[in-house]
Amino acid sequence: MQVNCKVNVVNRLLPSTGKSGPSRLAWSSITLTENKSSVIELALATSRNKAGMKYRVTNNIEQIFSKFVSQGKLTLRFREPAHDLCLSGEVKQMEKILAIIKGEDVQLKKGILCPILSNSTNKVVIPKTKLSILSRADYPVTTSFPETLTYLKISGIALKKFDRRLLHLKLLEILDLSNNQITVLPETMHNLSRLKQLHLSNNEIKILPETFINSARVICLDMSHNQLMTIPSCICRLSGLQILKVDHNKLRCLPSTISKLKNLRTLTLSCNQIRILPESFQALALDHIDVFGNPFENSSQEIPLNPGSLTIRVATLLAISAKSTIKFKLKYTEEDIPYTLITYLHESSTICPCGKLCVDDGILSDGKINLLKVSGSVSGDKIVPVKMMLCTATCFQRFAFKMIS
Ligand SMILES: [Zn+2]
């Protein structure tokens, strides 16, 4: 039986043993064989050391650390030499190795899975980590995608559906499905927990599912040239996001939660239907923003500022709870307060220009913002209207229809 997995060889006799140094996992080829005397041996070869190292398994294992085998991790402690082999690979492979070593694998005992050691150890197969599919003919239909992929590009092949097999590529860091005809994204895309870059430009996507992706690892999201009408407020969960491209869509507004993307540096909004930006926009600190080609409203019309005539909305119970939680700096977990309140706290609160927290009980008004104050460079209009939530009538008099600095 031969498998490819990552292995860290720890020599217990060396002084560094036991210290948590940097991981030295190397792609290796492991071959388990049984010789004529029914002794099981394990041969380990890497691309650097093709001749490899041979370990006797039968009566030579001091301890097996299999607690994390369900996560694809297994450590074998040999008596002679005093080595620990820390294996990391696919769960099925680890379970198979464990079964063989424990003598539970019948197949090996019969000698079926016993390739000749000397031949097999010379071949160290480095698993495929990058794959580009740029023509329909290369698209795997009967075969599967290698589970070891970290980069996958499937572009320009008129793909109509998001292939659910991709959701099993747990190691994927960059996924590029640009220039296709995808209309719907799966709701379980957050399963791709290692994703750093997602390129979906030039497709026909109308909706971003609420549970789309929520990892703080994502740094680049390109949804340009699609059919998006809105961006869900849960976008704020992508706290590591640096580049957000949503130009050439059908967006009418942006969620106020966009200001929670503290690491955002590039934002492209050009060629949408945006008439007004959320007030929280002033909290952004961008390097570049592109707002070209949006029908921004000219909010120059003044209305009489009579505080008495203003209707201040009554706060909902949810808003009052949220305010109290923040006012008293309550430390909470999901066990202490309802999930709806947590979501509300994370996604709904805005700050009045006076600095006070404002929830949905404030006065909605318009103002203006100079985009050069939130971004190093601006393409398109510099002065654009923003929607404001003002906490009191006094703040309305002070800020409504004015430039927020
Ligand atoms: Zn205020």
Automatic annotation (TrEMBL):
PROSITE patterns the UniProt entry points to: LRR (PS51450)
InterPro entries: Leu-rich_rpt, Leu-rich_rpt_typical-subtyp, LRR_dom_sf, LRR_domain-containing, PIF1/LRR1_PH
PIF1/LRR1 pleckstrin homology domain location: 1-102
Key words of the record: Leucine-rich repeat, Nucleus, Repeat
Keyword Cytoplasm in record: no
A Pfam match: LRR_1
Domain of life: Eukaryota
Record has Repeat as a keyword: yes
PANTHER family: PTHR48051, RAS SUPPRESSOR PROTEIN 1
Name used for this protein in its record: PIF1/LRR1 pleckstrin homology domain-containing protein
